[in-house]
Amino acid sequence: MISFLKKISDDNSSSGYDNGIQFSDSDLKNEISMLLTSRPLFPGLEDLTYICDSVINYGVNSSLLNIVTQEEQTLEIIRRITIALKRFEPRISDIIVMHKEVNDIKYVFTVNAYILSRPLVFDVFWTKATDNLSLYE
């Protein structure tokens, strides 16, 4: 299966020719990192079926301005990471995002999933002060 970024960069995405495009773990890491650090152009359009799945809405809205409690923030970040991965990374399946660590500066989440029947585990880092998501390395 082709990644979302490769699909939108293809001049003829409806052809079956590129279904066999190979990707490395490094490519996958870079694409997930780009997804996590990108922000949707119109995050308020979550309910519009075709818009929410398009390149216009690519990324994760990491701003939690109106969400006050730590528990609500944690649940909302988990929800947003899960939705973004399901929408824009079709090679990944069985996505489970779990809260791992929290302190005054950051939240860390672990993502467990499968890519082409192979286990995939990585950590995502959310910084409170800047509302930024990134891969936790």
Automatic annotation (TrEMBL):
Any Pfam family the entry gives: GPW_gp25
Positions of the IraD/Gp25-like domain: 27-100
Superkingdom of the organism of origin: Bacteria
Name of the protein described by the UniProt record: GPW/gp25 family protein
